[in-house]
Design a protein that fits this description.
single chain; alpha/beta; 6-stranded mixed β-sheet; 5 helices; 28% strand; binds guanosine-5'-triphosphate; binds magnesium ion
């Protein structure tokens, strides 16, 4: 089978669930109390889509403000970026817009952008309407999904959509 390496990074506020999404995707597990990421962490995962094996090289960045300046090291040269917010935290959605602006300015021109509204399982606490977020993603040409690292909702699908949207080599 044809094989393709895909460098990918996750960005977004601390606590939105970036590491939890990666852990769900790579090991299909969930932990209620995951440590906040220091600097960044790296994992790989293979996924077969339409006869191609995609080898995702995943840089899971740290959302804490003190690591903010490290982000360009990870998004530069990334073929795709997942910007994650927490559907129960309005401020985390504002940060998505900030990241999108920064990536449009400094990311690679054909980077595949995906926005993930995580913690979909906490619907009672929701602050961000799915429809509004989808509308914003459509405007800027980004993939959009709501995910839950807890229930696994849309986690493999997110990576599958990215694989399908990569420009042909
Ligand atoms: P930083 O590494 O600090 O940038 O945070 P992060 O974005 O990697 O967040 P992390 O994955 O560490 O998750 C933060 C907290 O949210 C943890 O307690 C997780 O268990 C919880 N969490 C993550 N995803 C979900 C989800 O989909 N649903 C629920 N209910 N909790 C989640
Ligand atoms: Mg983390």
């Amino acid at each position: 089978m044809a094989q393709r390496e895909v460098k990918l990074c996750l960005l977004g506020d601390s606590g939105v669930g970036k590491s939890s999404i990666v852990v769900r995707f790579v090991t299909d597990t969930f932990r209620q109390s995951l440590e906040s990421t220091i600097g960044a962490s790296f994992m790989t995962k293979r996924l077969n889509v339409d006869g191609t094996t995609y080898v995702f090289q995943i840089w899971d960045t740290a959302g804490q403000e003190k690591y903010r300046s490290l982000a360009p090291m990870y998004y530069r040269g990334s073929a795709a970026a997942i910007i994650v917010y927490d559907v129960t935290r309005e401020t985390s959605f504002q940060s998505v817009k900030m990241w999108i602006q920064e990536l449009k300015k400094n990311g690679s021109p054909n980077i595949v952008l995906a926005i993930a509204g995580n913690k979909n399982d906490l619907d009672d606490l929701r602050e961000i309407d799915q429809k509004d977020a989808k509308e914003y993603a459509d405007q800027i040409g980004a993939i959009f999904v709501e995910t839950s690292a807890l229930t696994a909702l849309n986690v493999p699908e997110l990576f599958m959509s990215i694989a399908k949207k990569l420009p042909s080599e």
